């Protein structure tokens, strides 16, 4: 059976069997409901109808997440739950990581301990998954504070990428230039959340100032043909999260999600989950929903899936590893 046939059958179990990437996943909210329930007896419900305000999302967070996981053990459990979820979903490339403030809060400011926690959970729960460890930044934090936290992270080759998230309108993107310059020196893939709440122009500004390789969301690009062309010319990848966009009211419905237009124009797009626990958005469900809504054809979705599995950073080395060869053979 091929992935195209699996989509055609509209059978999630079959879709889950094929390798997929998740390059837009906030692990704190990326876990398996079942795993968390089995370990804690604690039930987390997802959102099913679009939110009317960000206040509604905050009340969801305080009800279901609150302080329940605010301990080293709680954080560890969420990391494990995220690998369990990705394994169940057939995700074979997973890009996740801790927010820089979490290092002091949950790992005694010990970077080796933090890295070990992710790698150990990876090896124990889902060794078939390629972990791309990410450094996370919240946009509302001051750059001085972030730089201070980041001093523990620089030079650690285990990190693959850096991402900026949180309130897109909290402060000017230009403030983050020194951080991204340093991240580029460290050889990290440069990513940031832009063009979800902001405009198409914000996407170009962020890419130019921070030299981004990839944009989380970036769906506002669809409003401006020049921005679309800019993304294509500069080979900028967009890691798009359809269910999240619909439930946060950024897009009217799945059928009209701009991923179709961006893909048809030739933008490099991938499909991510954003927050599995909030949006009930695992990767297999995202593919199925895009197919069932008529947004993209099954052949197009397969093309996007295969594209997401490409390692743009380590093109040459990827194929030479056993893991890489295995993934490519299974495509
Ligand atoms: Zn996100």
TrEMBL record:
It comes from the Bacteria. The keyword tRNA processing does not apply. InterPro entries: A_deaminase_dom, Ado/ade_deaminase, Metal_Hydrolase. Signal peptide: none annotated. Keywords: Hydrolase, Metal-binding, Zinc. One of its GO terms (cellular component) is cytosol. Residues 129-310 form the Adenosine deaminase domain. Its cofactor is Zn(2+). GO terms for biological process: adenine catabolic process; hypoxanthine salvage. One of its GO terms (molecular function) is metal ion binding. Pfam families: A_deaminase. Gene3D superfamilies: Metal-dependent hydrolases (3.20.20.140). Belongs to the metallo-dependent hydrolases superfamily. Adenosine and AMP deaminases family. This is Adenosine deaminase. It comes from Anthropogastromicrobium aceti.
């Amino acid at each position: 059976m091929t992935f195209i046939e699996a989509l055609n059958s509209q059978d999630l179990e079959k879709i889950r069997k094929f390798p997929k990437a998740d390059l837009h996943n906030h692990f704190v909210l990326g876990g398996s409901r079942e795993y968390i329930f089995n370990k804690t007896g604690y039930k987390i419900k997802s959102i099913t109808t679009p939110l009317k305000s960000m206040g509604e999302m905050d009340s969801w967070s305080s009800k279901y997440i609150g302080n329940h996981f605010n301990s080293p053990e709680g954080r560890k459990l969420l990391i494990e739950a995220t690998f369990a979820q990705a394994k169940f979903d057939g995700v074979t490339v997973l890009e996740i990581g801790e927010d820089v403030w979490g290092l002091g809060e949950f790992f005694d400011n010990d970077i080796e301990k933090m890295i070990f926690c992710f790698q150990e959970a990876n090896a124990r729960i889902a060794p078939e998954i390629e972990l791309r460890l990410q450094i996370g930044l919240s946009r509302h934090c001051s750059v001085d504070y972030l730089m201070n936290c980041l001093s523990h992270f620089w030079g650690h080759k285990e990190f693959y990428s850096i991402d900026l998230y949180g309130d897109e309108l909290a402060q000017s993107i230009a403030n983050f230039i020194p951080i991204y310059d340093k991240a580029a020196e460290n050889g990290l893939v440069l990513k940031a959340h832009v063009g979800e709440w902001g405009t198409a122009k914000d996407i170009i500004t962020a890419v130019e100032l921070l030299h981004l390789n990839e944009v989380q969301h970036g769906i506002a690009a669809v409003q401006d043909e020049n921005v679309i062309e800019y993304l294509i010319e500069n080979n900028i990848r967009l890691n798009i999260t359809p269910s999240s966009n619909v439930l946060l009211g950024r897009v009217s419905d799945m059928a009209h999600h701009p991923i179709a237009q961006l893909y048809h124009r030739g933008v490099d797009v991938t499909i991510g989950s954003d927050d599995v626990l909030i949006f009930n958005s695992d990767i297999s469900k995202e593919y199925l929903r895009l197919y069932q809504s008529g947004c993209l054809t099954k052949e197009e979705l397969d093309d996007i899936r295969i594209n997401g599995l490409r390692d743009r950073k380590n093109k040459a080395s990827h194929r030479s590893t056993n893991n890489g060869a295995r993934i490519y053979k299974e495509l």
